[in-house]
Amino acid sequence: MDLLSRILYDMVYHTTPILLCVLGGLFAYKAGVLNIALEGMMLAGSFIAVFVALQTQNTFLIYLSALLVCAVIGLIFAYLAVNKKGNVIIIGLAINMLVPAIASFILQFMGVPNLTAKWVNPVNFRFDIPLIKDIPYLGPILSGHPLGTYIGLIMIFVASVVLYKTRFGIYTRVIGESPNAATSLGIQANKYATWAILIGALCSAVAGLNLSFERLGIFTNGMTAGRGFIAIAAIYCGKGKPVQSALYALIFGLARSLAINLSVFAGSISALFDIIPYLLMIAILAVNSAYEIRNFRMRTYW
Amino acid sequence: MNIRKVAKIVALFLIAVMVLTACGGGTESGGTGPKASDLKVGVVCSAAGQNDTGYNKALVEKVKQLAEENGFHAQIVEPTSGVQNALETLAADGYNLVFSMEYDFEALVNGVGGAKPIAEQFPNTTFVVFNDNPNVDEAGNVKHKNVYSVLFNINEPSYLAGYLYVLVNEEQAKLFGDGYNMVSPDVARVAGFVGGTNSNGILVFGYGFVQGMNDAAAELGVKYEYLSKNDAGFSDPALGSTIAGTFYDNNANVVFAAAGVVGDGISSKAKEVGRLAVQVDANLDEQQPGYVLTSVLKLTNVPAETFVKALVAGTLDQLDNLQTFGIESKATDITDLSVIEKFVVDKEAWAAIKAKVDAKRQAIGSGSLKVVNVQIGETFDPALCPNVVIK
Question: Is B246 close to A263, i.e. CB distance below 8 A?
Answer without folding.
Answer: yes
